[in-house]
Amino acid sequence: MTAHSEKTVMHALTIRLQDEIFALEATSVREILDPVPITRVPNAPEFVGGLINVRGTVVPLADLRVVFGMERPPTDQDTRIVVVEFDLDGDLMVAGILADKVHEVTEIDAGSMETVPAVGMRWPPAFIRSIGKRDDGFIIIPDMQRIFRNEGGLDAAAA
Amino acid sequence: MTSIDPADTFRQEAADLLEILEQSLLDLERRPGDEDLVSSAFRALHTLKGSGAMFGFTAVSAFIHDFETAFDKVRKGEAPASGELIAAALQAKDHVAALITDAASVDASAGSEILAALAAAISGPCEPVWRVNFRLPENALMLGTNPVLLLDEMRSLGPCNIVSRSEAVAPVGDIDPDYLYRAWALEIGGPVDPLAIEDVFLFIRDDMELTIERSGGGGVENAAADEAPPQAATASEALRREPEREAAGVAQKDKAATLRVPAERLDELMDRVGELVIAQARLSQIAVSRHDPALVSIAEDIERLTSSLRDTTMGTRMVPIGTLFGRFRRLVHDLSQDLGKQVNLVTTGEETELDKTVIEQLADPLVHLIRNAMDHGIEQSEERRASGKGDTATLRLSAAHRGAEVAITIADDGAGLDTARIRAKAEASGVIAPGAVLAEADVNRLIFEAGFSTSQSVTSLSGRGVGMDVVKRTIEGLRGSIDLASEPGHGTEVTLRLPLTLAIIDGLLVRVGSGRYTIPLAAVEECIELPKNAGEMRGRSFLDVRGELVPFMRLRDLFHAEGEADVYQKVVIVSSGQIRIGLVVDQIIGNNQTVIKQLSRLHSSLKTFSGATILGDGTVALILDVMNLVGFGQKLEESRRDDVLGRAA
Question: Which of B189, B214, B239 is at the close of a domain?
């Protein structure tokens, strides 16, 4: 039973971006930081327009709100930076993700996950891996690889 | 701790020993009969054989055993170290290397062929080598003796290796132009009667110094080789001596003076020091703001210690470039035989030290440049004679410190670049538009473009148009630059300019708008105030710096800085090579030690920044890529020049 449940459950860290709840793969989350000074990178893609110091290493700061066309209010007391690391085309990508609020580590039942409907969506469907359901609403599971590849200007650089 | 595979330890040791063997053999080719070299090669072989057997590399030790037998004859003076022997021994060395890497894939018959060649090379006439040292009386010239004739006569006796010795030359003030101060050391091979040698000096024998010794006997003074070796051999010899002690396996007191440390540990150490430098900057900043004398004094101590720790750590990562140059002697040796061109490789500045990562990455570009010079640059002997040059071409490989950079130069005395042909080729392949206005230097630089080759035929060496592109990309990846100078008929000179280290640099911290940026201090020439009347004419900006026009860029515009510009703007004049450019900033904050952090892939396409660093207050500052900014300024300059020319026309 446990083996079965491990397969069908996604361990996720839920964060809030504006009015939406997003889920990040819990295993890819390295740490959660209070807001730190952000260095603007001139002429960089807006999605990754900043750099932060994460205990001695320089890490790009990504703002998913840019990708999903949301408003970007200034940081407040709930703002956090979630440092994630994941595999991007064979390289380890470490990046900070700006979150309006960090909720909790939770389990999302795979049975409740649905593929993205092609229509009737406010966001670009390509950037969403699936949508999970919970009692109080929907949870968006973003496709980090695709977002970073497209919005981080990597495709442009490769072309 | 991970367990170490003993076979790997052997492979590592073997690589060093093979290196020594190869260098000794190549040196031996220049100075046949040098016993030090023979025994150095022999020792390397012997150690290899012993440890090979110990670690189970039986095929290796069996082969070396036969190799050694052949070489033993040379050591005993029974066979000369002839060119054929050296060539066969070099082949044998390659065979050993292949056996060590993967014995199964090596064809056994190849080994026996090499051994047969070795045996053939030593079975020739086994004549002793005679060493002759002579000094003529000082007044010999006045008495009508011509030393040239004497030397010619010696040459007629057998193959001679002559070294001139100048240790007895009088101090400059006391030199009498009529006197002869030189002495000569010779080695004569072949069937020579020592009496015949003495007969050469028959008429002046009484007043001169003459010693004739049979080589191979013990205790022969080896003055000639020690005092006047060919220039190229000096430094490589010094380099060779160091590992040689280890190779000998003799317990010497210097042995403990060097350690073999895994490279990753040095990298880790450098990372820690980098973090320490950042932490120290924070401490200093807090100490200053607290106005606590005790704290300030500790912070100053820590700063001093950190800075010396930084220098020491960087020092441990520095490797003399001679380790790299040594490898090219074999390359040049082999290439000159393949191409049928006589090429003399002259290396200088081997002691110049560079960060080990830089050295590792330099190997490929240098191989490409040397191949290119030998294949395309240097002409065949007939052509060389036709243009009044000697048969033997010279390829110079030199390294030297220039400020915070190291310049590595590869120069040949060949035909130089054919600008017209490069241009035609570039137009044909669409790299440049037909009839485009380009300076000669810019046309020549096109050889560094990918897929560019002017060679009519693709040889085994070059012509595919891949190599030079590799050179350019590698050097740029190392934050270096390439200068190219060529004179038709006289040769080509390629200079690679590289930063000393990739880890920590001194930087000049500036502010542009609300952002802070670091400029590598080595590139900064001066800082001046932006004159009020520094107007932009037709969208292009130039500054009059002591009569010279320097293009300048407002970093505020380039970086789209927000907020009001400072009233008194400053200009930081930076340079790379001959090109200077002014960068207009709001404020110059000061010097800082800059630990370079690479930018992630997300930002690597931004050419204006070469990296980032962490400041004392923990924030991140971007490091400006001066080379690219200067390139930008250069375009400004050129467009101005074209503008002026266009108007004049």
Answer: B214
**CATH at residue A104:** 2.40.50.180
What average pLDDT does this structure show over B55-80? Answer: 78
What pLDDT band is residue A51 in, cutting at 50, 70 and 90? very high
Q: Is residue B380 part of a domain?
A: yes
For residue B103, give its domain range: 6-125
B602 closest CB neighbour out of A39, A42, A152: A152
CATH code (residue B14): 1.20.120.160
- Distance, in Å, from the CA atom of B270 to the CA atom of B273, rounded to the nearest integer, reads 5
Please answer whether residues A135 and A39 qualify as being in contact, where contact means their C-beta atoms are separated by less than 8 angstroms: no
Instruction: Kindly tell me if the per-residue pLDDT of B341 is higher than 90.
Output: no
List of chain B residues whose C-beta atoms are within 8 Å of the C-beta of residue A42: 515, 558-561, 608
- Cα separation, B579 vs B646, in Å, equals 22
Q: Is the pLDDT of residue B206 over 60?
A: yes
Determine the Cα–Cα distance for residues A45 and A123; give it in Å rounded to an integer: 19
What mean pLDDT do residues A46-61 have?
A: 89
Reduce the DSSP state of residue B405 to 3 states and report it: strand
Nearest C-alpha in A relative to B557: A42
Q: B226 pLDDT exceeds 60?
A: no
Q: Which residue from A39, A45, A95 is facing B619, i.e. has the nearest CB?
A: A39
Query: How high is the ipTM of this complex?
Result: 0.85
B559 touches A: beta carbon within 8 Å: yes
User: In this structure, are B471 and B328 located in the same domain?
Assistant: yes
Q: Which residues pair with B518 in a beta bridge?
A: B509, B623
A69 part of contact set with chain B, CB < 8 Å: no
Clarify whether residues B561 and B572 are in a common domain. Answer: yes
Same domain, B491 and B562: no
